[in-house]
Amino acid sequence: MHKNFLLTHSEIDFYFSQNPRDFVVNEIPLYPASDDGEHLMLQVRKKGLSTPEMLKILSSVLGCPQREIGYAGLKDKNALTTQYITIPARFQNILEGNLEVLQENQIKILHTAQHRNKMRIGHLKGNAFFIRLKKVSPLNAQKIDQALGEIALWGMPNYFGYQRFGKFGDNYLEGKKLVSKKKKYNKIEQFLVSSYQSYLFNQWLSNRILLSRLCNDFDAKEIKKASQTLNFPLSLDFQSLIEQKQPFKIVRGDLLHHYPYGKLFALQDLSQEVERFAKQEIVPCGVLSGKKITLPQDEAWALSERYIDEQVTESGSHRFAWVFPQNIQGEYIPQKAHFELSFELPKGSYATILLECIAQKEMRGQENEC
């Protein structure tokens, strides 16, 4: 599945393996525990377990129905991760009596506090990551540092990561077949359809990045000529895109969202919103095909239409096209040829996409020789 990227450096070689030593994920909660109420908020560290596997173990050990356990999001299996969950407070004594049993199952309770509500999906601010890259030469370490500086300044594309598309990267093909069969889907089928929705979003975003790259490198006449081959609408105002300073260009009719929180809205004043985008106050959004969805207009619709499948009967939504990683830090350890980096991403964004932006090539699977 081809993706375009906006950074201009050549490919960077390194080795990355998703394992608990070299890949650490810490959930950033949306709010603190209320310190009162009928639930317990637990900060949980797990190792070598997916979130569903962890919830199943907790349910079994505590005797708590899994439906009563609340959590904000899924965390990687092949990593050392912390996240917050809630359980009914009536299970507190059972929990305290089974801490060692949970540790034997690679689950450690780091902190507990009373809370008023059951945690819901999406109730997180984002995630903080630590990643160790290996086999990094001194020259490539310099290039990684420069790439991180560019990402800190301009942000990065919010592609769905390879994890969304299954072991062989082709789940979306099964999802595409399903949308033509108007029926109710079971959970597995819903996942396959969501994979297809994600695939369409990625293709749309890759196409918009290609357009942005052309506008960064060529004049309006050259872009218009290339557009005949690349199927970009000739009605686009290429000159206004060229004049935008930020690498990713926004167009008339784009859907925008206050960043990182706020509401979706339609672009009205292009020059004003370009300035706000550069200040990291708003970001453009793409469409995940489905029902009851606000669609882009004007130039943005012309660039989106072929990536929206009206046969999808699942609920549609919008996703940030662009995100701004925070607190980016990197350190090169020449004796080991390791490069260690840490950063924060908003919820739903993939750390592996940041690595792809650095490497300038796609990653596939848990071990990558980039």
From TrEMBL:
Keywords: Isomerase, tRNA processing. GO terms for biological process: tRNA pseudouridine synthesis. It is an enzyme of class 5 (isomerase). The active site is at D76. GO terms for molecular function: RNA binding; tRNA pseudouridine(13) synthase activity. GO terms for cellular component: cytosol. It catalyses: uridine(13) in tRNA = pseudouridine(13) in tRNA. InterPro entries: PsdUridine_synth_cat_dom_sf, PsdUridine_synth_TruD, PsdUridine_synth_TruD_CS, PsdUridine_synth_TruD_insert, TruD_catalytic, TruD_pseudoU_synthase. It comes from the Bacteria. Responsible for synthesis of pseudouridine from uracil-13 in transfer RNAs. Belongs to the pseudouridine synthase TruD family. This is tRNA pseudouridine synthase D. The lineage of its organism: Bacteria, Pseudomonadati, Campylobacterota, Epsilonproteobacteria, Campylobacterales.
